[in-house]
UniProtKB/TrEMBL annotation:
Keyword Hydrolase part of the UniProt annotation: yes
Gene Ontology, cellular component aspect: vacuole
Name of the protein: glycerophosphodiester phosphodiesterase
Domain GP-PDE, chain residue ranges per copy: 49-367
InterPro entries (alphabetical): GP_PDE_dom, PLC-like_Pdiesterase_TIM-brl
Annotated source species: Cucumis melo
Family to which this protein belongs: Belongs to the glycerophosphoryl diester phosphodiesterase family.
Lineage per the UniProt record: Eukaryota, Viridiplantae, Streptophyta, Embryophyta, Tracheophyta
Record-listed E.C. numbers: 3.1.4.46
One Pfam family this sequence matches: GDPD
Reactions accelerated catalytically: a sn-glycero-3-phosphodiester + H2O = an alcohol + sn-glycerol 3-phosphate + H(+)
Gene this chain is encoded by: LOC103492213
Extent of the signal sequence: 1-17
Chain segments annotated as transmembrane: none
Keyword list, A-Z: Glycerol metabolism, Hydrolase, Signal
The keyword Cytoplasm is assigned to this record: no
């Protein structure tokens, strides 16, 4: 500690000198760690279940917005997750629903009133304002709101829809290695309504963007560890198509077993069979099941777990269930309305390899408090030294001319 503090204090003199030259600057005068090529950032932790920020920290901010993703990183997310859809003009956006009605203000614009359509989506007729009928510019003129009425509403109308590239930039600009976890959302529907040049399809454009930003390499390879990513989809044909374009790791999502797949019309009962696992493991490194598929629940009480995780692990497949939420109506009564008890059960009893959560900070705290790894003195010293430098900066900055 003494060495770290001494080093920090020694740094004050040159900092004060440099202040004479940059006193009018608006940004901090000590380097921002993500601004320089070749910087050494804290690596992704792979020795514990992954903390996957489901649509960002959407327990606090409207889902899939820049603040939601930035907050998730601050809270300790290993991966930030997003859904990818397309605009009318082929721009890939971060948005969950194929319609805009529920979480945007699209309905208040008279100029868009004639855009309402009825389309078939996964065998069901849906009426609304669809992303595929709006250009990117139009989509970004809309404002989003919190999906759930029992969550904080103060940010409604303050944020816009972002692009896939905006999302990637948030992860790459993080002060430590943060992975991304994008989902190819409703690929059958998107490919029916959006056409790209040269015969390319949704999946092709998706992989092009990943490659543009340097995402490459198989699971745990050096390249992957530098820029981690899992590609997820409910559509087996999308997973297979993408496997021909990149060796990045893929996750097959699993819905309620009563729902058929959107592309192959298979029952999810078939999807979770040993014979199918034996087939799909050639293309994926894991599965992402709805958590009630792993542990059934009735009247908000969990029942006896299935053998899904055990069988997936026998096929060397990871299991990343979704979605964990802190609110009492989502935490089963067996856990006494305590999300930490739920995390403990899923990680230490069921043995999953990652969890999708709306409350990244809660899962981070649980993992931190239950970790068997003692804190490193060096890390603590470095943090204290960094905090001291920041305080010195704030003190000096208060004397700058407006």
């Amino acid at each position: 500690m003494a060495k770290a503090m001494a080093a920090a204090l020694c740094f004050v003199t040159p900092v004060l000198s440099s202040f004479l030259f940059v006193g009018c600057a608006a940004r901090p005068f000590y380097p921002l760690p993500s601004r320089f090529p070749g910087e050494i950032r804290q690596p992704l932790q792979t020795n514990r279940p992954y903390n996957i920020a489901h649509r960002g920290s959407n327990g606090e901010f409207p889902e899939e917005t820049l603040p939601a993703y930035k907050r998730a990183i601050e809270e300790g997310a290993d991966f930030i997750e997003t859904d990818i859809l397309s605009s009318k003009d082929g721009a890939l956006i971060c948005f969950h629903d194929v319609t805009l009605d529920e979480i945007t203000d699209v309905g208040k614009y008279k100029k868009f009133a004639n855009r309402k359509r009825t389309y078939e989506v996964q065998g069901v007729n849906i009426t609304g304002f669809f992303t595929v009928d709006f250009t990117l510019k139009e989509l970004q003129s809309l404002r989003v709101k919190q999906r759930f009425p029992y969550r904080d509403q103060q940010y409604n109308g303050k944020f816009s829809i972002i692009t896939f590239e905006d999302f990637i930039a948030v992860a790459l600009d993080a002060p430590r290695v943060v992975g991304i976890y994008p989902e190819i959302k409703n690929p059958v529907f998107i490919n029916q309504h959006v056409k790209w040049p040269d015969g390319k399809i949704f999946e092709d454009k998706f992989v092009e963007i990943l490659k543009k930003y340097g995402y490459q390499g198989s699971y745990l390879s050096k390249n992957w560890m530098n820029q981690p990513v899992f590609i997820q989809s409910f559509a087996p044909t999308s997973i297979i198509h993408i496997s021909n374009l990149t060796d990045l790791p893929k996750i097959l999502l699993i819905d309620d077993t009563t729902i058929p797949t959107q592309d192959t019309n298979q029952s999810y009962w078939e999807i979770i069979s040993d014979s199918y696992f034996n087939y799909i493991k050639k293309y994926v490194v894991g599965i992402g099941p709805w958590k009630d598929t792993v542990v059934p629940a009735v009247n908000n009480y969990i029942l006896t777990p299935t053998d899904l995780v055990t069988r997936a692990h026998a096929h060397n497949l990871q299991v990343h269930p979704y979605t964990f939420r802190n609110e009492y109506n989502f935490v089963h009564f067996n856990f006494h309305q305590d999300p930490y008890e739920e995390f403990d059960y899923w990680i230490n009893t069921i043995g999953v390899d990652g969890l999708f959560t709306d409350f990244t900070g809660s899962l981070h705290h649980f993992k931190k408090w239950t970790s068997n790894l003692p804190p490193k003195d060096d890390d603590a010293d470095e943090q204290k030294a960094s905090d001291l430098l920041h305080k010195i900066y704030l003190m000096i900055n208060s004397y700058r001319s407006p």
